[in-house]
Amino acid sequence: MEPEHLAEEELAAPSAETRKVSLYQLTGSGDLRECVALKALEEDNEFEIDEVRVGDQTGLLVHGWSEPEEVGWNSMVRTLTGVDLRYERTVASAAVFVEVDEVIYVVTFNQGWRLVRDSRVNRSFGIDFAVRVVDDDEIQQITRWALSSKSRIDRNAVPSGQGLWSFGLREHAELVRELVAKARADLPVSLTHMRPKAHRRNPRLRLECRDGLKLPLSVEGSGLISDLREINKVLAECPVVEALAPLQWVKRVPAGDERRERLELAVAELLAGEVPSGEVGISYPAKYFDGPDVHRYRGTINGTKIDTDDLTLDHIALPLRSTPAESRLHCLRTGYIDGYDEHGKKSSDGMAALQWIAAEVDLEKGRHILLDGEWFVLGEQYVAHVDSVVRKAFASPPPWKLPAWNLAPPNDEGKIHEGAYNAYVAEKNSGRFICLDKKLVTTRAHPRGFEACDLLGPGDALVHVKKTSSNTGSSPLSHLFAQGLVAAESFTDAATWEKFRQLVALQDKKRARKMGRRPGSVVFAIHRSDKTLTAETLFTFARSTLVSAWNTLSTYGIPVHIAVID
Questions:
Q1: Cα–Cα distance between 259 and 408 in angstroms, integer?
Q2: pTM reported for the whole predicted model
Q3: Which of 11, 32, 295, 471 is the 20 to 30 A CA-CA neighbour of 508?
């Protein structure tokens, strides 16, 4: 759970019968004391626990003061004047636990959420309620976490309210962490706040949905129990609004969840080759999705140094195989890998080895995915949606064909690198394709620059080229799809597109003058060296990034094509 930092004002005028509070649903049943935070149960603490009656139910009231802490501005007064005021402050908090029809709820006041045992919180409750009652045309604020990029957390607020999809939500690929919206006017719920009164003939319910709910509930014990029964009724009987269903497709496994360590232990066992079920592979951290390509990988895992131009799973797995099982997870967290560009410049100060891994683990009948150091639970609808979009992408090739990979000239070692292939295509198709490999567009948002494309194709197609095989796994393709998305999204800004036009003009002024106002399409051109690339043979962990690119670019009206290079 996180601090209650949202606005306290109510949509309608305050009612003496209700008060806006934070409500959490807890898992399990039984002794309410088992739901109380351990620190509040310890002896010699500042909190009191009282058995109480809430309406006709037995409840538990936990209350007290926080430890005194220094007022934040004391230090500045001290440095300005030399006087130490030594002012302190404490915060009074309370939480009321009550079980209603075999479902445990807790109402918290001030920092009362700190008095709840974290492991018992049902973190799906807030969104599960929202998708049944929210008017999808009355979204006021939404906070999202991109599944394929840990670094992308954004919050959009529109006080007047608007439709959910105008926020650019990427269906499956973004986890909604917070939703602020009005409930539907025709909601069949008899909450105390929604009953017509003299000063409020048609009251609307405003919800703030996170792990829990923030909403006005009855201040009377019997009224509160009645409100909680109505919430139970909504969860049991009200269907999910079709437009909001994707919000439940992906759920993040929060920090502190007991599943996380078990999942990461499973990954360590997969790397050591001790568990046959599950899948693990290399995956670029989100930090490497823009900027120059990685040309060298350096790091250390369990005392084993890594220095290679082709990072494989063995570089991470081999140092673990001689390590006791109980120490492998520590090695993944403390080991690090850096990516370097062709000029020897690194893009980070040591990303944990765990962040270079993508994994899929089945646990407790759920499919769990590790991406960029975070765990997510995938629903069946998510998997079906991904399969559907991947099939559409492969069924949509561009209206032209690229030459076979092996026609490009090899290097002294007999290998054909992407740079040589891109140059060959441009040379053999002069005027139709322009080679822009390693040519970066620099903006304020991308100070290191981003690669717009490997080739500029007919009709202003941004062509991104990659060679892959079972040895490289999904990592190069996940990177490819993410780069394509970053470039195309950046070009929705007219000034950035103009910078790209100038880059093209350095090679072909005539072509630059004919360019439109934005990309005509995005083409992912892929050569798989060990087998034919199809929708079925696309690596598991590349699928999410492809679907993310497809969905987002579709909202911009930019077609996405897959070109399979023979």
A1: 49
A2: 0.62
A3: 295
